[in-house]
Design a protein that fits this description.
The chain is of the alpha/beta class. It has 16 helices and 14 strands. The strands form two sheets. It has a seven-stranded parallel sheet with strand order 3-2-1-4-5-6-7, sandwiched between helices. The protein has a seven-stranded parallel sheet with strand order 10-9-8-11-12-13-14, with helices on both faces. Strand 9 (about 260-265), helix 9 and strand 10 (about 280-285) form a beta-alpha-beta unit. Helix 3 (about 55-65) crosses helix 4 (about 80-90), helix 10 runs parallel beside helix 11 (about 325-350) and helix 11 (about 325-350) packs parallel to helix 13 (about 375-395).
Length: about 475
Amino acid sequence: MSNFYETMLNNNLGRNLLKTVGLPTPIELKRYRPEQATFFSGKVLLSGSDNAALLEDTLRNLKDSDAQVYFPAAARNAALLVNAGEKVGISLTGIECSKDMREKFDALIFDASGFSHAQDLDQLYYFFNPVMRRLNNNGRVLLLGRPPKQAQSGEQAAAMRALEGFSRSVAKEIGKKSATCQTLYVAEGADSAMDSSLRFLLSAKSAYVDGQVVTVRASKAASYPDWHKPLAGKVALVTGASRGIGEAIARTLSRDGATVVGLDIAPAEADLRRVMAEIAGEYIVADISKDDAPQQISDALKAQGGADIVVHNAGVTRDKTLANMPEHWWQMTIDINLAAEERINQALFDQGTLNKGGRIVCVSSMNGIAGQMGQTNYAASKAGVIGYVEYMADELAKKDITINAVAPGFIETAMTDAIPFMTREVGRRLNSLSQGGKPIDVAETIAFFANPASGGVSGNVVRVCGQSLVGA
């Protein structure tokens, strides 16, 4: 997709002009490429709190990458770090950390799972302060902790919740490097289920996910599948699959090994058939707002042996201020964006069409979190999606099914190309990474949720927005 702004950056005149009008020059994001052998390659600086409980599992994952792992030689828990490395068979190198050090890192990881009170937060300062300038472009910063709601005391809950404010602020400080920072909460008993989350957040697949929080709950641990084909043998339904974000989702799930069943309405049938033909998928032509759609979808999926992954991407916008909005615009938006998803899911549950270990992913929106002028109907529907996901996570855990949501921000599509040039360019920069995302960024996050190793990831809402300055 053409980007006039990026084209102008290729010459000095364009760069100077854009600098004059106050638009930042973004560093290109490094996204996933099939030739990348593992989920991470580069130098990692790792440390943790007293009684840090996630070091061994972190190192177990890093052992499967091309990481060179360092630790602060002066860390008071240096022996704990070395011992954790020995247990999993990975060698760690001690290094003197100071603002004058020459070494640079591709990831900084701190395991704060042992924090119990506010004074422990000092350890964040002592680890990060000397090395913040030593993070490479497109680097990763990751904070590990326990979910605040499962804390043993108010003091511990406060210390764990503080990780979110810290990580979101760090993300804004390092965004100019196209580097990201996230918090990963791992519940007690879920340590062995953290693999998919840690690998995704450290990898290039999360390039446009920034300043986010992912929580892993206790679940049956599953061995991590092949990095390049994690969805091999799975069947995935993608609604609204003919173009834009939906097409990217379909192509990405297919790339990862899934058989994709794409769905769209009759006017989009030609594009839908083309996309499905190119990825060897199947297609359903249906209007999800119709009464017979759930049964039609269930029947088509049963013909494929049931569904393992369901992605609710189809949606509409009908924008007007509330005072000027026709009633049918309101009803159409709520029905397609929210109620239809509920009806389809219920049919799949009732008829046993969603296989054991199933994954449901709903597409919400940044505007469902922050609201937007002229989008009361759309924002209500997308906020409703979040409420549905958060409630259903506990209900579906009994059936070994996960449900999560993505909330895209400024994603480059045909719709954004129609926005006036300067409005579009400013919109692209209103995030910590100073650039718009791509449909593939949304698709990668959905593929992470769909991963067989993501059984402990449920009830999460992850914004794919480069840490937009709008909303939470």
